[in-house]
């Protein structure tokens, strides 16, 4: 069994855990990384990889605990904030407003540290779109294209949002037109003589 007290063995185990994570084997990676985290809970590389392993397994609360502590200890590490944003959010379709807000803050912190941080603009775009803020979603997806002009997903979202905005504008115009017609109809009906009223008595001789 490897002696993790030795720097070389510690580094080897960390590299193996990171490799397993890249191979999409988060459970196996976690087995490698947990003993390292228990030995060195302040090691930022261990925390990032262990947090990533938890995220890939959907263990959002555990990921948040590991990465929140890492963010306190290493506030200038971009990857910590990116992973923390993912941990805060969980599954977008299930995330509530508070989860989304925490994720937005973490992602924005990552962009403050590195405006070209990979995928961060895109994830912000998805969150803002889910929240119904199409203007912020558009800005985020445009930011994603600045980082990666070949991002086809970001381009597709911009096309989709443009169509949504056109539909919203059309619906608004139709609603305003209907309201104006209704108002005009109300005024016309008020000015028209009352057909049910009795005629005035005829005054005059035969």
Write the layout of secondary structure elements.
Layout: H1 7-22, H2 26-39, H3 44-56, H4 60-73, H5 78-89, H6 97-113, H7 120-130, H8 134-147, H9 152-191
Structure description:
By secondary structure, the protein is an all-alpha fold. The protein has 2 domains: 95 residues, Alpha Horseshoe (Serine Threonine Protein Phosphatase 5, Tetratricopeptide repeat), CATH 1.25.40; 59 residues, Serine Threonine Protein Phosphatase 5, Tetratricopeptide repeat. 73% of the residues lie in helices and 0% in strands. It has 9 helices and no strands. The longest helix is centred in the C-terminal third of the chain and has 40 residues. It is elongated and about 90 Å long. The chain starts with 6 loop residues before the first helix and ends in a 15-residue tail after the last helix.
Oligomer: single chain
CATH topology title of the largest domain: Serine Threonine Protein Phosphatase 5, Tetratricopeptide repeat
Terminal-residue CA separation: 128 Å
Average pLDDT number: 90
- Strand segment tally: 0
SSE arrangement, N to C: HHHHHHHHH
Fraction of residues in H or I helices? over 70%
What do we call the CATH homologous superfamily of the largest domain?
Tetratricopeptide repeat domain
Strand content: under 5%
Q: How would you sum up the global shape?
A: elongated
- In the predicted model, the low-confidence regions spanning at least 5 consecutive residues are 197-206
The number of distinct helices, counting runs of at least 4 residues, comes to: 9
Alpha-carbon Rg, integer: 30 Å
């Amino acid at each position: 069994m490897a002696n993790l007290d030795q720097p070389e063995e510690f580094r080897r185990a960390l590299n193996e855990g990171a490799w397993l994570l890249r191979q999409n084997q988060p459970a196996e990676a976690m087995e490698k990384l947990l003993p390292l985290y228990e030995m060195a809970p302040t090691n930022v590389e261990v925390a990032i990889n262990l947090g990533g392993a938890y995220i890939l397994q959907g263990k959002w609360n555990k990921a948040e605990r590991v990465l929140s502590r890492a963010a306190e200890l290493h506030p200038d590490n971009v990857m910590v904030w990116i992973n923390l944003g993912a941990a805060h959010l969980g599954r977008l379709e299930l995330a509530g407003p508070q989860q989304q807000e925490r994720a937005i803050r973490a992602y924005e912190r990552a962009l403050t540290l590195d405006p070209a941080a990979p995928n961060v603009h895109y994830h912000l775009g998805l969150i803002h779109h889910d929240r119904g803020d199409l203007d912020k979603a558009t800005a985020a997806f445009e930011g994603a294209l600045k980082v990666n002009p070949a991002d086809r997903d970001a381009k597709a979202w911009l096309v989709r949002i443009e169509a949504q905005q056109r539909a919203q504008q059309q619906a608004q115009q139709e609603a305003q037109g209907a309201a104006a017609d209704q108002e005009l109809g109300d005024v016309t009906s008020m000015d028209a003589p009352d057909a049910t009223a009795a005629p005035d008595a005829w005054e005059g001789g035969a």
